[in-house]
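When time allows, look over one protein, given below as sequence and C-alpha cells. The question is which stretches look regular and which look disordered:
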Amino acid sequence: MKEKWLIREKREDFKRLASSLKEDSLILRLLANRKISDPKAASLFLYGDINNFHDPFLLKDLNLGVEIIKNAIINNKKIAIYGDYDCDGVCSTSILYKGLKRLNANFIYHIPNRESEGYGMNKERIKILKDSGVDIILTCDNGISAFEEIEYAKELGLTVVVTDHHDIPLKEVDGKLIKVMPKSDALINPKREDCTYPFKDLCGASVAYKFVVGLYKEFSIDLKEAEELLQFAAIATVCDVVNLIDENRIIVKKGLELINNTNIIGLKELIKVKNLEEKTINEGHFGFSIGPCINATGRLEIADYSVELLISENKDEALSLARKLNELNEKRQELTSESVEKVEALVESEVKSGDKIIVVYEKSIHESIAGIVAGRIRERYNLPTIVITKGKDMPKGSGRSIEGYNMFEELSKCKEYLEKFGGHPMAAGLSLKEENIEKLRRKLNSNCKLTEDDITPKVLIDAAIPLQNLNYKIIDDLNIMKPFGKGNSTPVIACKDILVKRVMFMGKEGKFLRFKIELPGGKTIDGVNFNKYDFFKESFEEKYGEEAFTKLLLEGYTNFKMDIIYYPEINEFRGDKNIQVSIKNFRL
C-alpha cells in the first residue's frame, strides 16, 4: 500500500519548550511532535513518578463506592467481583481480588464465559450470584453499558458498584445523541462528564487500582502495599492500547520497574515459561508476549485460568497455569493465521467494490479472535474493519478502526440493526441478526465521510538523521522517551539515499532481511527488518526485474539506494557492542 511520508513540524511548540527546558533538541522535538508544549507537562512526561499520581477521590463516586465496599467488609456482606475476559478485565479482577483479600473481605469473583455469556453483565449470572448469597456486585472493566442488567440486579435487591473506563453510551433523543449511564449505586468512570478527575484515559485495571488505593486509605493501610498491583495495571495499560501519557506513562514505567524484580509468583512463572528470565522486561514484552498469554485463556477456554495464575500463591500451581496459558496462546496464533487467510479472500471483493468500511461475515472463525483478525485486515487495507462470526445465539462481530473514523459513534447511528454493541472510537464489539449484516454494511458505507486522503496511510517522521551521525548519546536520549505505545509511539526517524551493498536473507524461511549499508567514507552499518520480505521482493522486482532478485537471493551482493524509516538500537554479540538500525519501512 502506498504511503505518504511527512515530516512533522511543530516549530512554535518546540520554541516554547526550548525556552524553558535544557533538554537535547531531539527530545524537545519529540515532545513537541507529541503535542506536549507546556514545560510543566513535558517535565512530568520525562520525569514523572508515582508521587505525581492524582488523588483517586477526585474520581466521581469513588468515595461513595469505597464507602459501600467498606461497610460490606465491616458487616461481612458477600461481594462479587464481576470482571471481563480480556487482559484488562483479568488484570482488573486480579487487582480487586488482591485488594479485597488484604482487607479480609467476604468475596468471590466471576469472569463471564465469552461464548455462553458474552461481554459484560448477564441476567442469568446475576440471578445465580444472588442465589449464592451475594449482596453486592463490584464490576471492573465493564458495567457502563449494562442498563437492563443493573436494573434487574437492583430489582433483586443487590447493590451495584461499577468501575469502568469505556466510553459513556450514546442514546438518541429528539434526533440528538446524548450520553446516558445506568442507575447503579455508585458509578466510577473517569469519562463521565461530571467527573473532575484530571486524566480521562485510564484503562479498567488502573481504575480498579485507584479504587483499591481508596479502600486502603479508608482502612489506614500503608499505600506502599498497593504498589505491587501496578504491575497488573501496567500490563493492562499496554494491552488495552490506551494513550501512554500522564498517569498511564507513570503506571507503565513503575510497573516495568516492579516486574523486573517481581515477587508475584504467577508473573515469575509466566516470565520463566516465556524464556524472559535473562532479559529486561519492557513494554514490548507486555504487548507481544505476556499480555497475549493472559488474553488467550478468555479467547479459547475460560479467563479464570489467567486470574488464577495472577493470584496464585503456589509455585507448582503457577507453573502449570503458565504453561497452559502459553499453549493456548500458541493455539490462538495458529487459528489467527488460518482465519486471516480466509478473511483476506472475502475482503478483496468488498474492497474492489469501493467500500471504505469493511464488513465481512465468516461463520467458521472462532469469535474470540475476530478482533485480532479485524486488526490484521485493518492494517493491510487501512480501512475500518468489522469481522463477524457465527456466535452462539446470533452473529457476533469485532471492529477495528483508523484515525479519523469513530467506530463507536458510527455504530450508534446504526442501532436499528444491532442487538448489542459497545466500545471505543478505535474498537467495538457487536451482536446482530444475520439478516441485518448486509443492511449494516450498506448503512455504514453510505454514512461514511472518509476521503481517499483519509485512508492513505501517513507516516509522520519525527526527525531526519543521517546514519553516519548516529552515536550512543542519541540512543540514550531516545530511551528517555520510553515506554512507547499509543500516544507516544516509537520515534520515527528517516534517512534518504542510503547505499545498500549487500542483502542477507536470514531465518528458517529466509524472510528476515539484513542490509549491509555503506556510509560516506567507507564504513558500514547493519539494518535489519523482520516483516517486509514480500514488500521488498515486490519492490525490487518492480524496479530491477525478477532476474535481478533471483541473483540477489543467490549472491547477496548488490548496489542500490533506498530511503528508510528506522529506529537505532544497540546490538550486543559475544561481548561486542555496535549500533544497528531496525528498519520499519523503506522505498527503493
User: Anything to note?
Assistant: The chain has three domains: 4-37+459-587, 54-223, 353-447. DSSP finds 20 helices and 20 strands in the chain.
